[in-house]
Write a structure and sequence with these properties.
Elements: E1 11-18, E2 22-24, H1 34-44, E3 48-52, H2 53-59, E4 67-71, E5 83-85, H3 88-105, E6 114-118, H4 120-126, E7 130-138, E8 146-147, E9 156-164, E10 173-180
Parallel strand pairs: 1-6, 1-7, 3-4, 3-6, 4-5
Antiparallel strand pairs: 2-8, 7-10, 9-10
Bound molecules: NADP nicotinamide-adenine-dinucleotide phosphate.
NADP nicotinamide-adenine-dinucleotide phosphate (NAP) binds near residues 25, 52, 77 and 146.
Length: about 180
């Protein structure tokens, strides 16, 4: 069985976390994984991203070739390159509109797919809308920080796609696809 949420375009969650589900410390990037960044760019290009205002702040600029939809409670907050919304429902509406409009101009690169881009607050709201998670698991010794929500493990079929050993200062990490089965 899949998510009961009725969606025009599917929402894929994308995340990198360590063994303790830590995704960030709210300030700096915890790890530098050049391969993962390339993979993320390739996967998300031509799609809308839904992110929290704190994640937007941590990136500090819009990611090109994608809609940068930013959730905030503020009715005055704005930033160049951000599509600002005040609710998750509006984020989905803006994402669907962006896909429709962009499909007309940029048919070759536009994907009929939305990405749940984080951080923890936005994963918490949006995960129930996702049947798929693109997950990077990083071997990184850290016990406290901002955490990805705890998944009900039996709801998900997990496929390991690639494993990379530690090399040149880049920590060991692997790419996984999670598909909701319940
Ligand atoms: N490793 C990864 O894959 C990954 C991915 C993304 C982010 N991160 C990390 O995660 C951290 C940020 O995560 P976070 O959980 O602290 O923050 P966040 O989820 O990025 O943003 C939280 C903000 O979103 C807004 N928001 C949340 N729920 C809302 C709602 N229902 N309606 C309207 N606005 C809402 C609020 O903005 P206002 O305060 O403006 O109202 C809130 O402060 C950073 O360290 C970042 O680097 C890691």
């Amino acid at each position: 069985m899949k998510t009961k949420k009725k969606l025009k375009n599917p929402i894929f969650c994308i995340v990198a976390m360590n063994e303790n589900r830590i995704i960030g410390d709210g300030k700096n990037l915890l790890w530098h994984l050049p391969g993962d960044l390339k993979r993320l760019k390739k996967m998300t290009m031509g799609s809308p991203l839904i992110m929290g205002r704190k994640t937007w702040d941590s990136i500090g600029r819009p990611l090109p070739g994608r809609a940068n939809i930013v959730l905030t409670n503020s009715v005055t907050w704005k930033a160049e390159g951000a599509i600002v919304v005040n609710s998750f429902k509006d984020a989905i509406i803006k994402a669907d509109e962006w896909i429709d409009n962009n499909m007309e101009i940029n048919q070759n690169i536009t994907q009929k797919k939305i990405f749940l881009f984080g951080g923890a607050e936005i994963y918490k709201i949006g995960l129930e809308y996702c049947d798929n998670i693109e997950m990077t698991k990083v071997k990184f010794n850290l016990k406290t920080g901002i955490k990805f929500p705890k998944l009900n493990e039996s709801d998900w079929e997990k496929t390991k796609l690639e494993h990379n050993l530690a090399k040149n200062g880049v920590p060991e990490h692997s790419y996984w696809h999670y598909r909701r089965i319940i």
